[in-house]
Amino acid sequence: MDLPTVWFVLIAVLFAGYFFLEGFDYGVGVLMPFVGRTDNERRAVVATIGPVWDANEVWLITAGGAMFAAFPRWYAAVFSGFYLPLALVLAALIARSVGLEFRSKEADPRWRRAWDAMIWAGSLVPPLIWGVAMANMLRGVPLDAHGDVVGGVVPLLSPYTLVGGLATVALLTLHGALYLCLKLPPELVGRAERLAYLVGGAATALYFAFVVYSYFATPVVARIGLDPGSIPVLAISSIVAVRFLLGRRLYGWAFAMNGAAIVLSVVLVFAILYPHVLVSTLRPSWSMTVAAAASNPYSLRVMSLLAVAALPVVLAYQAWSYAVFRRRVSLRDPFHY
Amino acid sequence: MTIVGLARLQFGVTTVYHFLFVPLTIGLAFLLAVLESWYVATGDAAYRKLVDFFGRLFLINFAVGVVTGILQEFQFGMNWAGYSRFVGDVFGAPLAVEALLAFFLESTFIGVWIFGWDVLPPRLHALTMWLVALGTSISAYWILTANAFMQEPVGYALRHGRAEMTDFFALLANPQLWVEFPHVEFAALATGAFFLAGISAYHLARGRQVTLFDRSFRLGVVVALVASLLVVVVGHAQARHLVRAQPMKLAAAEALWHTSPPRAPWILYASIDSVHRRNSHVLAVPDLLSILAYNRTVGRVPGIDAVQADYVRRFGPGDYVPPVFVTFWSFRLMVYAGSAMVLLAAWGVWLVAKERHLRARRYLRAMVWAVGLPYLANITGWLMTEVGRQPWTVFGLERTPEGVSAGVGAGAVGTTLVGFTLMYGAVAVAGTYLVVRYVRRGPGASEPRAAPAPSASPEPA
Question: What is the ipTM of this complex?
């Protein structure tokens, strides 16, 4: 594999890590008002992600930084081309992070309700927009000869891309529900489980709809043919399996299967894109390839060495942080958020 | 306003806002690690109380710093696609490495630190704060590596219509970086120290929890003095580097329209006429500019006219003069704020040495307001650095208008500018409200556990 391809894969890995880890944070945020009825219960819900959400978000920052460093033209086209959607994601991330940190620092119920609303909206908007963005990547964007996405926000919105957005919201919300089944105090697990069934149905339906819709709305048939191959089949079977695992209270397995569906979906989007990073709907020859978008070989080599040296250490201490807080949250914990 | 103007304003607003929170994060993380280590070493509960109290203030600040940092990274691609394409090969790498080496470290261990009390053994818990402090400083190093490239591009070659990295170690050893990084690092430490000392002074002046805040006050003023002095020393090295590397920035920062006499004075005050290119009502200290630029009393500093002629020879026709008024006054304000910091910290250390600080009410009250001084110096320092580099984004390589996103309309940039500014304002108001409440309430009062019913909402104890 040549270095640009290695970095394309690495960026796929970083996004997969981001959606897997921060995915359940978003889901927990979306479900918080439904699982936590009293303030103390809502604090318990926030406490399930309390020690880890900040580091989970760094996967996104690292993915963005890696795109900038390894594929400057791709980074420039995507970030300026999805301008207003990305601005909304950023606004949501600000509202959510500040909400998590500020909500319990004041006792006034109005203060807490206001920040809870911020956490909720700030957890809902990013999956929606990332879903829309990924659907756009699959369908192609109005990319011009200079490598700029033209036309503003309107061409990015269509029934197809919205289905992509909703499917992502449902999938990550299910992820959050399953995570809550693993981490909530025993008194609250029942609620999370009921929500997991509810959201699980919607997620399965929307995901299936999105895959089928992709055959009609995108050039995917031309790229990979009618038989979608093993990855989407595995992804859909994983989501379907969640339901049965839930019925047997195998929360860990259910969470892992849904996580597999998320990771496989990200892998699939990148696999379909390859060897392009952006497909132009204006003229096929204006599509941007991995090779054309890449930084020079020296720069990629330097970063590869750094990544090889640092990533295992990062993974090790992040895994350790999960091990430290592996037990269930209790309603009698001294909550820090 | 043009799209370039709007994009610049947005970058300025975001960067300044982000940098209101960053220095305190860097400086206070280190001081918290020291306080917690003392707690672990002595077992004295007073230190634990101090760590809890200042730790909570730290976290309010940390959260805002992190999220505005994401904006900082995304903003290059969103508003400055041309710039990103042109320099991404060199400039992107330090940002990616920063995320990998620094952001993961600080974010993972801040989470462990917050929730790890009573879960981890005390020594390990103290270690997590040291790792957070280390992460914040590594972060500063890498982001300044990127900024130093904009000030003084090194380790690159112009190929395929862009700047490509040819020597990573040249980036790491950029001479600009090695005056800029210590300057920022010590300034951040001074910011944290003034914060620690100022808030301790607030309580000492009121005679509250004196034995507790006496300790943090002593640590605060001593670190404040050492850090502020080092900022000045490194700042001098920076000026000596500037006169060689970016003479136009120094000339603009001095409003030096024409090359100076052999013994150049340093202007304390002048009213600047940028149209006729002259100053009036000048109040100056003899020889000081020569000392600043060359470390001796004799030395001509090239003026704006001479550097402009030189740049035209090097870079072709064009106007290479940055906004003189802003560059001049941001430099003055930084120097004045920094000098006041040195004096106040030295006075504090003297009072502490004589054990007279607890009775020096007026000094203690002044120290509360002095918390604002490092903020003023940090912001004006960046204004001078960035405005003084204009018209370049990357000195000698790319001019600012060339970097802007071609596919983004002025309407979109204007909309997000207004939106983000309003949001920053709201977050600043909420954050300041929390900090002020916590400071007034003092330590000991733990976070309210559960919200009282809406009908009965007395002040929490």
Answer: 0.93
